[in-house]
Specification:
single chain, 113 residues, HIT family, subunit A
């Protein structure tokens, strides 16, 4: 498989990993859109949000809980942060491995630019 996130998870590509457990890994985005921009991904390769199944319900909840924990540890939970998931080309997805963007450390604007 030629998935960059799977290669990061396997240690084949270096990344600044901030969290890892049996189900989830989180690392800093190499092209940040905010002072703190992290990606939270499931260890299991799932291409898009549209590919989720009923049995993935707990994993999606854990992605959010891990993002909340990281926001607190990074020190921007109190002021707020943004969680974003993109789905497929028109949704802005660039890497086809399900991932949650955690952005913080500055005021977020709407609509996002």
């Amino acid at each position: 498989m030629d998935c960059i996130f799977c290669k990061i998870k396997a240690g084949e590509i270096p990344a600044q990993i901030v969290y890892r457990d049996d189900e989830i890994i989180a690392f800093r985005d190499i092209n940040p859109k905010a002072p703190s921009h992290l990606l939270v991904i499931p260890n299991r390769h799932i291409e898009t949000l549209a590919d989720l199944k009923e049995e993935d319900t707990n994993m999606i909840g854990r992605l959010v809980l891990v993002a909340n924990q990281i926001a607190s540890e990074e020190g921007f939970s109190e002021n707020g942060y943004r969680l974003v998931m993109n789905c497929r080309e028109h949704g802005g997805q660039e890497v086809y491995h399900l991932h949650l963007h955690l952005l913080g450390g500055r005021q977020m604007m709407w609509p996002p630019g």
